[in-house]
What does this fold into?
Amino acid sequence: MRRGAFVGMVAIACVAGAARADGPARYSAAPLGFEYPNGWKAEPASDVSAELAVRLTPPAGKRPPVSSLLVLVGAKKLSEADLDTEAAGWHAAHVKNRAAWGMKSDGGLPRDVTRLGSRRLVRYRDKVGSALGANEQTLACATISGRLACVIAAADPEVRDDADALIATILSTLSVKKK
It folds into this structure.
């Protein structure tokens, strides 16, 4: 996807959310805050890499194109220059963790560097197979408040744009406050 198209999706996602009567939901539990799709369930989770994790699941009975989202935030401060190295480490940890759970990896696209507004964004896409079927997992990371913040979206490859729009909404509204 071209850089301009991804940034454009952020604007579309924001406008679409504002146009809906019910609007997006807001997760707010110290120190994190972000917007996510209304009707989805947000709950604290654990992660192999991140100190803070929130799992987002779609409403029961509905099968949206994006089957799950995971919001991850690290505790250690880092500079923009460290984004690539830290994101690569988290990506490698997630690939190893998926293999430990018996998921098959069919490779993926090369690492993609783009922009989300004024933020630099590093994105990885992996083709994953499991007992529940094949999907694409997108891990997108940026530095927010001097911390590594990533969102992992699991979706059918045909709806990659929907996954990118949800990731963009979360990362563009994510705030990390001091504890």
Q: What stands out?
A: The radius of gyration is 15 Å.
